[in-house]
Amino acid sequence: MQVTGYAPREVSDLRGRPGEPLVLRYAPDAAVLVGGVPGSGKSTLLRRWAAPATLVDPRTTRLACQARMPARLPYPVYRPAVRLLHFLRTRAAFHRPGPLLVHDCGSRWWMRRALAHWARRSGRELHVVLLAVRPAEALAGQHARARTAAPRTFRLHVRRTARLLAALERRGRTAFPGARSVLLADAASRERLAGIRFGD
Question: Which domain of life is it from (predicted)?
Fold first, then answer.
């Protein structure tokens, strides 16, 4: 099967566009945010890529914290500490050499601004791969992985992501501060994203 190298520019919308598998190509020290609502397929995509890059994943932080907490302590009690630690780990990762993959929903405006700031300070290009799947498909993805977000949290992510998509359609990549490119993929075109490469 033929695989095509593809370097996204501006806003690249693959939704509803079947085609050959693609290997995304970015600069050697680029930071790539893989975003989308819970259940959209971010983790699955990152596992498929198996890229030689530093990966910042909130699940890794959560599991590390859970291992240190008493089993009887419910997660909501220390969730704020996990989120703060993940934020700090993400910031620190921008100061390491080499390419960077950031697993984040991408729907929070303050986190988008923080990522843009860290990328600028570290001299990196910031790129975005946003999995814009339908809410029903994302819910099915949550059930398939046996990890479901709270209904209120999920609805909040869906609303924020819808606002971001609308802003991208109106204003282009400037709707995502500091991003050199934003690639949009739905559930079907997500399967075309066969790999990722960092280099010239």
Answer: Bacteria
